[in-house]
Design goal:
mainly alpha, 7 helices, 0% strand
């Protein structure tokens, strides 16, 4: 529906990947809120697995981008392995930094989401340095 009723009529097909990821993430969050309010036993049984559904958005994005770039099978495999390795590296680094920040003297107004967003922004700038590193 998002593609046919929003993106295609306004010629915004280039936003397909981002809009699908946002749609999936929003639906998962709404489902989580509904389950927490209406079916607390199921919400507790699902535990951490419900928010992990949103990681499927990254898999969907890799598949879409491999199609958009018109990769053949070998290129798709290399691209998928590279993206998953980069994602894993970013998550491991982010968790390491969060552990270090737990021991750091961070002002109260920066604790929680503000410092997490600042850290994510600085990490994205660091990874931006790898853009076109190999001249591809």
């Amino acid at each position: 529906m998002v593609y046919h009723f929003v993106l295609a009529p306004f010629h915004l097909e280039f936003l397909r990947t981002a809009s699908f990821i946002l749609t999936i993430a929003a639906l998962v969050q709404l489902e989580e809120l509904y389950m927490k309010k209406m079916i607390p036993a199921l919400y507790r049984a699902m535990g951490i697995y419900l928010p992990l559904i949103t990681t499927n958005c990254a898999i969907l994005a890799v598949a879409f981008l491999a199609i958009d770039y018109r990769f053949n099978f070998l290129q798709s495999m290399v691209y998928s392995i590279g993206v998953s390795s980069g994602y894993s590296l970013a998550i491991v680094l982010f968790s390491y930094i969060r552990e270090r920040m737990a021991l750091a003297p961070i002002p109260k107004w920066f604790q929680g989401y503000p410092i997490a967003f600042i850290t994510a922004a600085l990490m994205s700038l660091a990874f931006l340095g790898f853009t076109n590193m190999f001249g591809l």
